[in-house]
Structure formats: structure tokens, C-alpha cells
Amino acid sequence: MSSPDLISSRPLPSCAPPGVSSCDTPIYDIVTSGKLIGRGIYGSVYQILIKGEGHLAIKVIPCNGMQSDIPREAEMMKRLPKHENIVEFFDVCREGEFYFVTTRLVTGGRTLLDLIKSNGRYRVNQSIRHGFPEDAARSLWLQVVSAVNVCHTHNVVHRDIKLENVLVDLIGTPGSDCGFSAQLKLCDFGFATVSERGQNLCTYPGTFAYAAPNILRGVPYDGHKTDVWSLGVLLYILVTGHFPFGNVRNVDNERRILNAQFVWDRHNASVPYRVLPVIQSILSVVESNIPYLSDVLKMEWVKTNPQVP
Fold it and tell me: Which of 29, 69, 160, 177 is catalytic?
């Protein structure tokens, strides 16, 4: 079987939306004959070996209702430099009724959600605690922070930071106090957009459990600060194994988010005292009080890690 060239410079056909190249070779049958490694709401992901490039992950997405999101995802990722904590993007192309989004394969084949489900428990004396030990949680979290910092430096806001959008590589390798070494890679820039600090955005994508108050209120928001809020939620999950406000949308959980009411001393899942000030600073009801990421990186708990981005 010959390997298709997925990176095309051919002129756009009239049926393709702006920003999406036409594929040089019919690829649907070739891609879908590869190994299925993931399936989501918008499409499926296959592993395929491309000559000269190695193993790639190709997301196959039906065109239904996705005319604007796919070219935008490509545009956002092309704005970013290559970075060890951002999934490497190649290109987007279209064949018939499908888009093909091509990225470097992350060999672990797991997400941060999978990792915390399988490894998010540890023993302290005679008790089992949920989440990761503080140093391990910080190491994992700072990898995501590093990725988001690159995005914000280039005025890209992600707007859907969550466990499922962080891929995990190198699982099972010795090298941390949890018994594994993991390299994390931020992915899925379908909701990302270009936005400067202080610029108001008025569309409300994302995932309920990670959404900042202004997004739930439906009022203008600073995408840099709502990304930081999502990072605060992520940090809470990493150190406790629980969502700070719940992950199901209902009246009670929405009220908790709008009032930033989270429990910090759960049984066997309390927030470490050195981490609590970071989370309290980030999860602020008033958006103007949420720090920018550059300020988060100056916090003492963050600076104690030798791998600060």
C-alpha cells in the first residue's frame, strides 16, 4: 500500500472552505484501514504510518456543521511554534464529506483523564489518598501550564482546557515519585481563537466543569483569564482526584462555580496547604482578580519547581 502525501499545496477547490487544502490522494479508505485509536463526538482518530514522517494520528471528521471550526483549528496551531507539550500539527485536508486533521502520534494513547483514573491514588501511612502527590501533581500541571503559556505568548487562547484534551506519552517509564514518567501534550484547538490580553470575547465554548463564571453568565470575558481558571480546575483535580464544582451541569454545581465554592478538605483528598493559595488565587469569582499566566508563574509554589516554563 502506498502512503499518501497529506500535506498539499494544490489550489483550493470551490467546495473547500477557506484555509483547508485539497488532498492530493484519495485517503479515506487508506486512513480508515489503519488502527482505530480513539472515537469522540466529532469524529474518529486512526494511527497510520506515513513514509518519511513516521507514525501519525489522523482525525477523520464529517463535514456536518464543522465548516468553520476545522480551518480555525489549523490556523491556530500554525501560529504556534513547535513545543514539547503541544501536540505536533501537520495539516488539514478535505476529501469529499470528510476532513482529515493530521498530527504526530502520541504513543501513550491515553489522556490525562485516563492517567488520573488509573494512577491517581497513593498511600500516606495507612490511608489511601486520591489524586497525585504534590510534587508529581505540580510536575504534570506545569507541563500543561507551559503549553498554555506558549499559546498565550502568541495571543492564542485555547478555551477548552480539560483532562481529555491533554494527551499522555511515555507511561510506565521510571522517573517520578508516582512510579512513572509522563510527558503531556495539549491538543484539540477546535475552540481556540486569537485574542490579546484584556480583549473581550463574546462566544461561549468549552466544557461546563472547567468554565469560568463569566462564561456561564454569558457576559464578555478575557480568554487569557478563563484559560487560567481552567488550569486552576485542572490543578485541583490533580491534587484531589475530584472536580472542584462537580462535572455534571445542574443548578447546584452552576451556583458553586458562580460563587467559586469548592471544598478544600475532603476526606482523603484535601488540597495540600502549599497548593491552596494558588487555587484560591486562580478560582476567583471576579474576573479582574484572576491572575494572568505570567503572574501565576511568579507564585512561590510554582517557582519551587526547577522546570518552571
Answer: 160
